[in-house]
Fold:
Amino acid sequence: MKLWGWTTIRQALSKHWRDWGSLFLALWASFMIFLAALVGFQYFVPLAWWSGSSAAQYVAIPYGTSTVQIANRLVHDEVIRSAFWFRFYARVLGYDRQIKAGFFQLNGRMSLRRVLAKVGRRNDSGSLVRVTFPEGVPVTQMGKILQARGLMDAGEFVGFVRKAKPIFIQRYPFLRVAPSDSLEGFLFPDTYFIANGSDPSMIVDMALHRFQEKIIGAWEADGGDMKDKYGFYQILTMASMLEMEAQRQSELPIIASVFYNRLSRGMPLASDPTVLYAMGLMTKAVVTYSDVAIDSPYNTYRQKGFPPTPISSPGLAAFRAALHPGHSGYLFFVADGQGGHHFTQTYQQHLAAQRGSVGK
Structure:
């Protein structure tokens, strides 16, 4: 029997470690080749090569948008395949400090390298115009604002918005709750930077994306006191009414409580702004008895329940108030002439408050 000496053992161990070392180096080299191929694939190969998506589109990047938000938007719009790799290359190559606001014509045929280079340059549509849509404006007023800023004809914008649901429903599935093709109530009121030469679809897409971030985000994250009783579209419609009724944000939950109290008692909502919406107006010094007699499904003096659609574009505060109304026994309110309201529980108290307001 042959005994193993120290030299023999050392030689065997040396060969063993050489074999393991060679295997480790081979595995390491394979990993590095794979990693280099993955990095190169993500950077140079366009999404269309992978999924067949090649639709050209304008993508809006508002001022103040973070790299994370931009990456998620580009994935959503099927321009890039991975938000992680967009953020990785934007950081490594310094594009995160160069990305500009504007409209950019992008598509899935473009590699990540081309996309980053594109959004790091001036936008494709010329100078940007700052446009603010205040809370509580209907689409008709949005059109007038765009026309006043020299961007497009008001009628063109309104006409597009009133039939735009089929165009955007695939990209924004929440639009399925709308009973008509109109997007009234879904265009989030905010400040936008819009390129000269933009068509209505670009502006609508930008406002719908903001709506998805703000309103849908709040709906999904917040349980809400009213979620068990009413659907999303009804809550949105309520918020649009609150936005038109309240001048003080602090009163939004109280007015919401009044409307929900009326609904629970089978009373008409009796909201003046719904009558004005039916008349094609935003404001009127005095809403008369003849006004509230108008024959319209939007006349909530004559029709019980919610109006058929939202009557304005509500902001986040109004939407949250519609989800979380105050707790009160109020059934009536009247303007106090100073930007607020008097709230009362009985009709007799309401009449007294009306006389007091008229006397001021």
Summary: Residues 61 and 345 are 48 Å apart (CA to CA). Residues 6-44 form the longest helix (39 residues).
